[in-house]
Amino acid sequence: MRCTAPGLLAIAAATTILASCALPGTATSPTASTIPSATPSDSPTPALTPTPDLCTNTSALATWSVTRLAEQTLVVPVEESDVAAVTAEVSAGAGGVILFGSSAPANLGAGLHALSAVAPGGIAPFVMTDEEGGAVQRMANLVGSLPSARQMAATMSPAQIRQLLTTVAQRMRAAGVTMDLAPVLDLDNGVGPDNQDPDGTRSFSLTPGIAGADGVAFMQGLEAGGVIPVVKHFPGLGQASANTDVKPATTQPWSALQHAGLLPFETAFAGGAPVVMIANATVPGLSTLPASISPVVMTTVLRDQLGFHGLVITDSLSAGALVDIGYSVPKAVVASITAGADMVLYTAAAAQVASLTAATAAALVAAVNAGTLPLSRLVSAVADILTAKHVNLCAG
Fold first, then answer.
1. What are 238-241's contacts with CB under 8 Å, separation 24+?
2. Average pLDDT rounded to a whole number, residues 338-342
3. Which one of 23, 145, 163, 342 is most buried, counting C-beta atoms within 10 A?
């Protein structure tokens, strides 16, 4: 699966709900100051003036069933030519759908509007796709041909990239797509993408400064056109030992990533990146687990050290990098959410999507009931999702 996939944007059919009480969801600087708590007054509290309970998305989610919480973390795969095929999954509360294919139907927007209309509580799913450019485009027939990242870096200024992506995003949004699993911020100069090199021409450059500047321009163009960008594949998949879609792979050593591959992500976070995708490769010197199921990568480094507070989604957990080390999709999803991911991607043949989605949601519920997945971690994941959707459960 080739999604190896400053401010947040509203989602179609869910944006009638105000975000006045939404949780913070954008990336912030690790040194951002916090508001000090109020100093208790020396004066006595006036009688008969009870303070009402403060409603937040997190407190409101306490009324959701564990099953509904679990469903919201799932992104269901579907062919863009038959989006109605996942109507049951969206009706059950799936938090997102990801479109596959290479030529989108002209009536895609109408189909996606009908799909979102069945979402419970009016909380529409994210509609995701991989519109990177070059070798990875899903709907070029609707949005126009987009050069590869490498070609953009070689022939266009950041301002030109931003302008082009604004136009592309406007066309994507008109077709009902609300999230693009791009840009790729990995540093790579290989010949891929292929079964050995996951990036190749999907990378802007081997130079961190170029990849960061052009990647942020791509990101900002998407946002200006009304589509949520997703920077990937954290903490840097460039020059990996293999393609994680096919088999287990390692990134550059952590000592090297900190001085090169990580830098474009830090630039994007400083620029307000709302969503980040986690790689399926292991990071030598940091974690022995694939990044997508590693609490060290997603919680210790991404959240705690880098101060990223936006939405965290995985690369496809159907990838060979996980399957080959004994992780089924349900097992990988539980491990990933437990480790710090908010939303999970996976793929399956159309006939298997329903059963795999049901099994995955059931695995999350079972993990909560068994105490291996803290309910608070699942609630936190869904709170991040709702923030990214600009959904305020306390409104009205």
1. 238/186, 238/187, 238/188, 238/199, 238/203, 238/206, 239/187, 239/188, 239/190, 239/199, 240/197, 240/198, 240/199, 240/279, 240/281, 241/281
2. 98
3. 342
